[in-house]
Fold this sequence. Notes:
- This protein has helices at 12-33, 37-65, 71-95, 99-127.
- It has 128 residues and is an all-alpha fold.
- Fe (ii) ion binds at residues 59, 74, 78, 116, 120-121.
Amino acid sequence: MTWKDNFSIGIPEIDKQHKELCDKIDELYAACSQGKAAAEISKTLDFLASYTVKHFADEERLQQKINYPKFMQHKAKHTDFAKQVAKLKSDLAASGMKTATVISVNNTISSWLVEHIMKEDKQLKDYI
Ligand SMILES: [Fe+2]
């Protein structure tokens, strides 16, 4: 998922972390197109599971600091993503590396991230 300037929410540290997430998803797509999905996909899910703990905590700390009115809503979206990643991991463990699973992982994480940045994180930008 290539980073685009209109993803920017104007907070350099958060933008940097979003870029990092986009890069990881890009690497996963590249690995899949080279037939290396099996090696990359669980690594990516592990990365997302641990990296988003820090990223979401940073975003939430910022929101609390500025008394962001939609904090609880926003935090719930983060919790939901963590659950989705955990589910993808267990689906993968249960079904093995099937094409449908790979597609589902790619679609779920990339569409969640774009939608979250463009919708929820942009509302935070507008508030600031
Ligand atoms: Fe967020």
